[in-house]
Amino acid sequence: MTTPMEDPIIQLYRDSFPDVARMIRRKGGTLEEAKDAFHDALLIYMEKEKAGRLQLHSSPKAYLLGTARICWLRAREATVALPEAFDAAEPADAGMEEREQSLRASLVSSGKKCLELLKAFYYDHCSMQDIAARFGFNGTRSATVQKYKCLEKVRKEIKTNKAYAP
Predict the structure, then answer these.
(1) Distance CA 61, CA 58 (A)
(2) Which residue among 7, 31, 93, 154 sits deepest, i.e. has the most Cβ atoms within 10 Å of its Cβ?
(3) Residues 6 or more apart whose Cβ sits within 8 Å of residue 60
(4) pTM
C-alpha cells in the first residue's frame, strides 16, 4: 500500500525484491547474494533512467528481475573457488619451464627433417599420405616408420636430459 507521497523507487523495491530473492534462492543463491544482485540491478536502472538511456521493453519489475539475474550470475562466476592446490603466485610445477625448454632443445636436436615431420603431423594435422608426398617417402608406411624413428630420437634425447631426471 503506497501513500501518495511515496518514492517510486521505494515502491519498485518493495514490488520487485521478493521476486528477485525467490528466483536467486531457487537457483541456489543466498539472501545476501540476492540483496547484492538486486541493489546492483537497481543502481543500473536508476543510472540509466537518470541518463535517459533506459529503454524498457517490459515492466520495470521485469527489467530489474532480468538485470539482477545477470548481476548474480556474473558475481557467481567471479567468485568460483580455485582448487586448493592452485597458488597464483607460483606455478604448480616450478620445473615446468625448464622441461619445456629442454623439450624444445630435444626436438631441435632430432634434426630439421624430423622437426618438420613431427610438426606436420602433430600441429598441422596432416595425414600420413600428405606427409609421404610432402617429404618424398615411397608411401604412408615409410612415412609412419620415419615418424616413429623421429619420436624415438626425441625420446632418447629427453631421457639423457637432466630436466627430466626423476
Answers:
(1) 8
(2) 154
(3) 12, 16, 45
(4) 0.46
